Amino acid sequence: MAPPPPDTPAAPAAPFDGQEFGARIRALRMERGLSLRKVAGLLGISPSALSQIERGKMRPSVTRLYAIMSALDAPVTAAFSDDHPGSASAPAAAAPPGDDGVVVARSGEAATLTLGHGVRYRRLTPVATPGVNLFESTYPPGACSSQNAEFVAHNGREIGNVVSGALTVDVGFDSYELGPGDSIAFSSGTPHRITNNGTVPAVAIWMNLAG
């Protein structure tokens, strides 16, 4: 069975709070004084499509999420919760619970987003860390990181390690097959895409560094 296309309406049973996610996107846009039409133009999509994302009626692909957050000049972690830099409602700094600066987040507390193609991102940083986005990403069979499997490029650098399953990472004109324990690092400015061409879900730890 072919995988569902990205940016498609979210299934009711999916572990994705579309309204909460959309509300955060809208709040960031409003804080920056940007109109729906302006941001949609930056993304190359219709205002109606962006409105559906903000209303929780449509889930973006992985690369669409990065494009949205880039257009809003906000870290990807801002899509998970309000405890992030760059939000008017966020505290000036993340306050650790103790004087030793240690912050612990238990497994069940990790924020999760399910995006287009059913790709699931689980945030691994216990608090917002400027310049660093660390996730556990799960790609179902046939899933791709981008809309219509196109190559995309953005600022920063990426480092990934496959935990289970297999991923195909296309960077520029080269293709890399990664299995359990394999790692890759590359400039996000080079056109790239990530695909699970296998028959089982692929899980990877992925780090995006601001550039």
General description of the model:
- It is built from four helices and nine strands, in the order ααααβββββββββ.
- With 211 residues, it is an alpha+beta fold.
- It has one domain: Jelly Rolls.
- The protein has a six-stranded antiparallel beta sheet, with no helix packed on it.
- It comes from Nocardiopsis sediminis.
Topology of this structure?
Layout: H1 18-31, H2 36-43, H3 47-54, H4 62-71, E1 112-114, E2 120-123, E3 132-139, E4 157-164, E5 167-171, E6 174-178, E7 183-187, E8 192-195, E9 202-209
Antiparallel strand pairs: 1-2, 2-3, 3-9, 4-7, 4-9, 5-6, 5-8
Structure keywords:
6-stranded antiparallel beta sheet, alpha+beta, 211 residues, Jelly Rolls, disordered N terminus
The count of domains is: 1
Give the neighbour order of strands across the main sheet.
1-2-3-9-4-7
Q: How many DSSP H or I helices? A: 4
Query: In this structure, how is the largest beta sheet organized?
Result: 6 strands, antiparallel
What is the mean predicted local confidence, pLDDT?
81
CATH homologous superfamily, by name?
Jelly Rolls
> What's the count of strands?
9
Alpha carbon gyration radius = 17 Å
Instruction: Identify the CATH class.
Output: Mainly Beta
Keywords: DNA-binding
Organism: Nocardiopsis sediminis
Protein name: Helix-turn-helix domain-containing protein
Domain HTH cro/C1-type: 25-79
